[in-house]
Amino acid sequence: MPSLPAPLRVAFAAAEAAPFAKVGGLADVAGSLPQALVRLGCAVTLYVPLHGTIDRAKWGIPDDGVERSVRYGASHVRVAYPAIERDGVFKSQARTRTDGEMHRAQRVADQDQVIH
After folding, report:
1. Which whole number is the average pLDDT over 46-59?
2. 68 near 13, Cβ under 8 Å?
3. Of residues 17 and 63, which shows the higher confidence score?
4. pTM higher than 0.85 for the full model?
5. Whose CB among 12, 27, 48, 104 lies 3.0–4.6 Å from 16's, allowing a Cys bridge?
């Protein structure tokens, strides 16, 4: 299988990714394409919302992670990125922190905000 001359860093973002959260075909692509890119020599990070249906204990997802400030309308919220590595892909599930309370990143997505 061909590989790239220098590691290409890829950030892949999706609303769902198999096997963590799956409703439709997007989850299949988001679950398999990053693995294929790793086999080609890419360094891949997959970002998905930390949906309430994701079994954190089953997948070993930690309670906390790297935090960043993200614009949320006229203000900012803190977004934590608890992360795991699986099949060579670094997977990060985003969740927001406002007023000391943790909220699912879906709230941000519902407001048509972009997390990057």
Report:
1. 88
2. no
3. 17
4. no
5. 27
What is the tens place of the pLDDT at every residue in 2-15?
A: 665 678 999 989 99
SS3 breakdown of the chain: % helix, strand, coil, rounded to 5?
20, 40, 40
Neighbouring CB atoms inside 10 A of 84's CB total 16
- Sign of the alpha-carbon dihedral angle for 15, 48, 116, 77: positive
- Whether residue 26 is predicted with pLDDT greater than 90 in this model: the reply is yes
Whether the Cβ atoms of residue 64 and residue 82 lie closer than 8 Å to each other: yes
The rounded distance, in Å, linking the Cα atoms of 11 and 47 is 7
Secondary structure E strands in the chain: 9-13, 43-49, 66-72, 75-81, 83-86, 89-98, 101-104
What CA–CA distance (Å, rounded) separates 58 from 80? 20
